[in-house]
Amino acid sequence: MPFATRAGPFLGRRAPAPVVIHSAPLVLPIRGEPLRDGAVAVRGDRVLRVGPRAELLGLFAVTRERRWPGTLLPGLIDTYATGRHPDAPGSRPSHAPSSAGHDSPGHDSPGHDSPGHDGAGQYGPGHDGAGQYGTPPAGPRTTSGGTPHGTSGPGTRSPQPPRGAPEFRSTTSGASGDGVFSGLSGTAGVVPGFGVTTRAGVVGEPGEAGRVPDFGYVPVTSPGVDEWDERDRDLLITAIREVERPSVIGVAVHSRDLQVLEDVAVLARTFGLRLLVDLDAHSLAALDEAGILGAHCHATCSRSLDPGERKLLRLRHTAVALRPPPPDDALTLLEEGNLVALGSGGIGDPLAQARTVLAQARGRTPRPRGLDRKLVEAATLGGARALGLAEGAGRIGTLGPGSRADLAVFAAGGRYPYASLLDDAPCLGIVIGGIEP
Length: 437
Prior knowledge:
The chain is 21% helix and 19% strand. By secondary structure, the protein is an alpha/beta fold. The chain has a single domain, classed as TIM Barrel (Alpha-Beta Barrel), CATH 3.20.20. The protein has an eight-stranded parallel β-sheet. Strands 1, 2, 3, 4, 5, 14 and 15 form a seven-stranded mixed β-sheet that branches. α2 (225-242) links the parallel β8 and β9. The radius of gyration is 22 Å and the shape is globular.
């Protein structure tokens, strides 16, 4: 008589991650129309679906619902974060989870969200207990996933959320971060009220890192081809090979030597890296001659561009990251169809730059059509395009199936949600890779 066998899961098979619903009175997927009483279904660090709240609650076996007030949209993307916020902590957070101060599935405290309950009027922070970010997309163009960043280490001052925002509680503590070029210059610490979930900047001193997944560019500053051939070229190749790829995705071109520019363009294509250039310091014609411009490049700019320069950038599909103070022709860039992103330069946040551009339009008649929406798209999808992360699995800047679960929630709404976002709406919280910091 054969031995009886017991049915059950195969040994070693990992249970699927729980499904968490993030819902709000208004959801802006960016690529799509606004959803009233919408929701985003999240499993791990990825979005499963975006749609009406009632539909998603009936479609998925929801472990927990996080009910937010206001407007929910993709996290903001700062494509030029080289400054330092005055409240920024100076140490790099660790990966070690804290054991206190979090609710977990099945143990919801009063006044917090719970499975099957919309939590109206109760907006506690909550935590899904995952404790880590999910697997980042493969390749050098991944964002997000790398190292989870928590609150500041011992002896540093934690950023304060805006008035009326839910309490933010730490999921990490301590300090870590090793390796060549492991941090970004001046990006340590992100105030949750900014709504920024992704920052990019030039790689600087080790040990400097942000509270959110960062993208860095290794700088090339060779004054001439002799220094480049003797030392800097080998240093760049070594840095590219040794640096953490989820953290560093490209090369920041500061050199003005044409031969150096040409060699950097070849190296970037060879290693599959992106390029960052400064239009305030370089001639567009020289950059184009060297092969720097293209869809693999984004350019920071705070000066006005002439019609020929704007057209060349459109032809090369090169995104322009406006940094403070934004140029007088920022509206023209948007109207003519250039790829536009926003960078803070360490001063404020992408929406602050959008408000500055909006102020430029107030004296114009007629007012550019759909300007509010274009500016919000520049702060989200525009940033993703500038970093080469707007398409495919793990994409950022939009909300849809397969996109990374980076969310920002603002106290905005009404009939004109994009205009409301630009009207100094405070940020109520962020979600990075499916986890609330």
